[in-house]
Amino acid sequence: MPIEAALIKPVVDALMALLQRGEKAGLKRNAEAALREAIRELLLANPDENKAQARIAIAKAAGLLSEDVLLAEDMLQKHRATKARTAGKSGTGRRRKPAASADAPVEGAKPARRRTPPAKPKA
Asked: CA 42, 47, 53 angle in degrees (round to 5)?
């Protein structure tokens, strides 16, 4: 029994559509994972900005446009702005005061109290 060409084309088209849908779902899943990694990276103490930017680009290229993409881009932008503003500051953000000389009294310090020797017990 010969298979008619008219029946083969719709079956092949349906199979191709299912295959493409599966690939798109896999691509979207990978893009979402990359986006989660980008956000996780930006939450670290010393994030790698280039890694985060690359992962955001992967999510955009996959067509993933959600609030998570906007959140990650905003976090990256704010991190870069903060990094530029705080460049050159010490870890605590406070300025160091010049060291006082050993002879000069320290402001606000109380004078040292003299210790009296403990009383001897009476025999």
From this structure: 65
Sequential pLDDT tens for the chain (123 residues): 455 656 677 777 777 777 777 777 888 888 888 888 888 888 887 888 888 888 888 888 888 778 888 888 898 898 888 877 776 665 565 666 666 665 555 566 666 677 777 778 776
Handedness of CA 54, 57, 62, 65 (dihedral sign): positive
Q: Which residues does 62 contact at the CB level (< 8 Å), separation at least 6?
A: 27, 28, 30, 31
**Residue listed under structure tokens 């976090």:** 75
Q: Give the length of the chain.
A: 123
Cα 35 from chain centroid (whole Å):
11
| Six-digit token string for 52 | 């985060």
Is the separation of the CB atoms in 28 and 53 below 8 Å? no
